């Protein structure tokens, strides 16, 4: 009678890990959202600003690709950030329809403050793992990612 219980428990183990992972993801997202909101930004605004710290002068289309959102979503987000004085649209020579996206000094300041908050959060959570544990976690996350990509490819 105990054998079926053990088999059933083993079969549900991935489900338990999944739920723990999803709850952890939600908790971390809530905690980071609070830190970013304290700067006066939403997570999508911070994502856009921090992306521009990596490479300024990209078009809205390139920005949409990097953020995995539609061009329409980026357009509205950029409009609000331009209005707030955090991002500038600059004409691209020879292209009347596209603009290069650039941070204003205030946009750069907020992006850097958000990046610092994110680094601090990571250091105080994931950064507390021992090196061997972090290496193993990274290996497992990459393996899980590869499984997910394989499902998408089917």
Condensed summary:
73% of the residues lie in helices and 11% in strands. The protein is mainly alpha-helical and 154 residues long. A hairpin with a 2-residue loop joins strand 2 (87-92) and strand 3 (95-103).
Walk me through the structure.
There is one protein chain. With 154 residues, the protein is mainly alpha-helical. It has one domain (2-153): Winged helix-like DNA-binding domain superfamily/Winged helix DNA-binding domain (Arc Repressor Mutant, subunit A, Orthogonal Bundle). It has 6 helices and 3 strands; from the N terminus they run H-H-E-H-H-E-E-H-H. It has helices at 2-37, 43-54, 60-67, 71-83, 105-124, 131-153; strands at 58-59, 87-92, 95-103. A 3-stranded antiparallel β-sheet has the order 1-3-2. Helix 2 packs across helix 5. The longest helix is centred in the N-terminal third of the chain and has 36 residues, at 2-37. The chain is globular, with a radius of gyration of 21 Å.
- CATH class category name: Mainly Alpha
Domain count: the total is 1
Q: Percent helix among the residues?
A: over 70%
Content-based structural category: mainly alpha
What about the largest sheet?
Answer: 3 strands, antiparallel
Question: Which fold does the CATH topology refer to?
Answer: Arc Repressor Mutant, subunit A
How many separate helices? Answer: 6
GO molecular function, one term: DNA binding
Organism: Bosea robiniae
InterPro entries: HTH_MarR-typ, MarR/SlyA-like, Tscrpt_reg_MarR-type_CS, WH-like_DNA-bd_sf, WH_DNA-bd_sf
Domain HTH marR-type: 14-149
């Amino acid at each position: 009678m105990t054998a079926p219980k053990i088999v059933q428990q083993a079969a549900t183990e991935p489900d338990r890990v999944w739920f723990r992972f999803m709850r952890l993801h939600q908790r971390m997202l809530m905690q980071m959202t609070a830190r970013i909101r304290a700067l006066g930004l939403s997570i999508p605004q911070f994502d856009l600003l921090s992306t521009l710290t990596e490479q300024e002068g990209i078009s809205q289309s390139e920005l949409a690709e990097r953020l995995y959102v539609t061009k329409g979503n980026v357009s509205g987000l950029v409009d609000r950030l331009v209005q707030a004085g955090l991002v500038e649209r600059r004409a691209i020579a020879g292209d009347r329809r596209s603009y290069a996206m650039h941070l204003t000094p205030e946009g750069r300041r907020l992006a850097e403050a958000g990046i610092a908050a994110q680094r601090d959060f990571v250091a105080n959570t994931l950064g507390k793992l021992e090196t061997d544990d972090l290496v193993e976690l990274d290996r497992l996350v990459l393996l899980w990612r590869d499984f997910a990509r394989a499902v998408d490819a089917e």
